[in-house]
Write a structure and sequence with these properties.
Elements lengths: L7 H8 L4 E5 L2 E4 H17 L7 E4 L5 H12 L3 E4 L6 H10 L4 E3 L5 H9 L6 E3 L8 E3 L1 H5 L17 E7 L7 E6 H14 L7 E4 L9 H9 L3 E4 L2 H5 L1 H10 L4 E4 L1 H10 L12 E5 L5 H10 L4 E6 L8 E5 L12 E2 L3 E6 L12 E7 L5 E2 L3 H6 L1 E3 L5 E11 L5 E6 L3 E4 L2 E4 H9 L4 E9 L6 E8 L5 H11 L8 E4 L13 H6 L3
Parallel strand pairs: 1-11, 3-4, 3-5, 5-6, 6-7, 10-11, 10-12, 12-13, 13-14, 26-27
Antiparallel strand pairs: 1-2, 8-9, 9-19, 14-15, 15-16, 17-18, 18-21, 20-21, 21-22, 23-24, 25-26
């Protein structure tokens, strides 16, 4: 029986011992091999002082070791924290300090970045996964996988309520916020995904998203739970739609999950009309709105594939779905219905439920909901709505309404959080980073452009002259690449409303 995320690999190794569990490029491992490698790493983690509840960073590109790392940390009783290796050093340093991460699992490709982190006197005192000499303690992957251990379960008691992972997203204070998921919420997401999409041991699931992106949990948890093979899409394949479409064909991918942008690029540059995608049965997409004209074209190309519009903030994993076919593509496309063990309300600013057709904030109660925000009880409490019956809901910050068919429809954001290429970006974080500089008085960030051409613009006022290059460098130092404004404009003053607040509506009218 699977009672926690830590049980998944053992469970599937017993049922599907010789079936492929994970594959990356030309290297594949069976569930039996995956279990042994996980146990090898667990042994090393425990030998090096890992205590239950310790946060362990995973700082690597898409690869096979990332799968081993996730399941070993969970099995050893730790909490994994995915770190984006493309993020600025300062941002990574903040996350390491925020979680008091002493042990980092990485790869040889990240060597130079690891040196920069160490030079900045980060909290880490042991790095796993690098062969080249580092000024702190290190263990190479081949040393770990040469460790002789008996192929038995590691006896660490894990409770469903225990913390499993912390996933960071943009925060309006200028610092990222950590979303805490337990074994209970993570496993229920995996189970409900397997049930909803009828995932079996015959499936081959494409894992397109990097680990620090929440939709990757489908490939890391749901797929192995069902005994399916997870195909890790390499960083190189994500950059070249033509080679990506070749990979989908060659690997006989049956389930795909990504942001719409990746599918649009496949559609436009992947030559999919010439590919044999007969194995493909599900295409799941989420993270942003799928532009109607592209979705229709893709559905026409692949009439035998079932499409699904997936909705759910990282705080609740997934909470709604809308199955798409040639006959029900609507504009706007619904986010659909809530899935099992989930309820919702749509509320006015006074917490009164709206009528069908009226717009309000979507709040969700589900068994896949987070435990809260790491080290931020106030933010956790502010993110919850408790009704008169003491039911606890997560306030998504998303505006929504029910159409005539009682389907949920996304209607925009209540606050300043936006989506860029599937990544959640808080415009308030960009503004906070900019105004930290002594020469920048005020800042306002906005988003402009169509769905697949979105870009961020920043407007600032200065107390002392500085050139734009210095401002751009400031953003690149503290923000992930996808959150760096594509253009910064300097104004004498920012337009304001009659109440004295910065008027973003007026700023948007200034776009030229």
């Amino acid at each position: 029986m699977v009672s926690t995320l830590a049980n998944i690999i053992d469970y599937s190794a017993q049922r599907f011992s010789q079936k492929e569990a994970f594959k990356y490029l030309n290297t594949a491992i069976t569930f039996k091999e995956a279990r042994y490698k996980v146990n090898q790493l667990v042994h090393v983690l425990l030998e090096n002082g890992l205590q239950k509840g310790d946060c362990i960073g995973i700082y690597m590109e898409r690869n096979l070791e990332s799968f081993i790392s996730v399941h070993a940390i969970l099995k050893a009783g730790g909490v994994f924290v995915p770190l984006d290796p493309t993020a600025p050093t300062e941002r990574t340093l903040f996350l390491l300090k925020d979680c008091n991460i002493k042990l980092l699992l990485s790869s040889p490709l990240q060597y130079k970045k690891l040196i920069r982190l160490i030079d900045k006197k980060c909290s880490v005192d042991l790095i796993v996964g690098v062969k080249k000499k580092l000024p702190i303690k290190q263990i190479a992957w081949d040393v770990i996988f040469d460790t002789n251990i008996e192929d038995v379960n590691i006896d660490v008691e894990i409770d469903p309520s225990d913390l499993a992972y912390i996933m960071y997203t943009s925060g309006s204070t200028g610092n990222p916020k950590g979303i805490m998921h337990t074994h209970f919420s993570g496993l229920n997401y995996a189970k409900q995904s397997v049930d909803l999409y009828q995932v079996t041991d015959q499936d081959r699931v494409a894992n397109f998203a990097p680990l620090h992106f929440d939709i990757a949990t489908f490939g890391y948890f749901s797929s192995p739970l069902a005994g399916a093979c997870t195909i890790m899409i390499s960083d190189a394949h994500t950059q070249f739609p033509l080679s990506l479409s070749q990979l989908i064909e060659a690997e006989k991918i049956s389930i795909w999950y990504s942001v719409p942008l990746a599918l649009i690029q496949l559609l436009e540059k992947g030559n999919i009309a010439e590919r044999d995608f007969s194995a493909l049965r599900w295409i799941k997409f989420g993270g942003e709105v799928f532009i109607d004209k592209y979705l229709k074209k893709l559905v026409d190309y692949l009439p035998n594939v079932q499409f699904c519009n997936v909705y759910g903030p990282a705080e609740v994993n997934q909470c709604t779905y809308y199955h798409v076919n040639t006959s029900n593509i609507k504009d706007p496309l619904p986010i659909g219905s809530v899935w099992s063990n989930t309820t919702f309300k749509i509320l006015t600013s006074n917490n009164i439920e709206v009528a069908v057709g009226e717009i309000g904030e979507l709040v969700v109660q589900t068994i896949t909901m987070m435990k809260g925000y790491w080290n931020n009880e106030e933010l956790t409490n502010n993110s919850l709505y408790i009704d008169k019956d003491q039911n606890v809901f997560y306030k998504t910050g998303d505006l929504a309404y029910q159409n005539q068919d009682k389907e949920l429809v996304f209607a925009g954001r209540k606050d300043t959080i936006v989506k860029i290429r599937g990544y959640r970006v808080d415009l308030g974080e960009i503004e906070a980073i900019l105004t930290k500089h002594q020469n920048i008085e005020e800042a306002a960030a906005i988003i402009t452009g169509k769905e697949n051409e979105k870009r961020i613009l920043a407007y600032i006022t200065l107390s002392k002259e500085m050139n734009k290059k210095a401002i751009e460098q400031l953003c690149k130092q503290f923000l992930p690449t996808y959150a760096v404004p594509s253009e910064i404009r300097i104004l004498k003053s920012l337009p304001r409303t009659t109440s004295g607040k910065i008027s973003r509506k007026q700023i948007k009218k200034m776009i030229f």
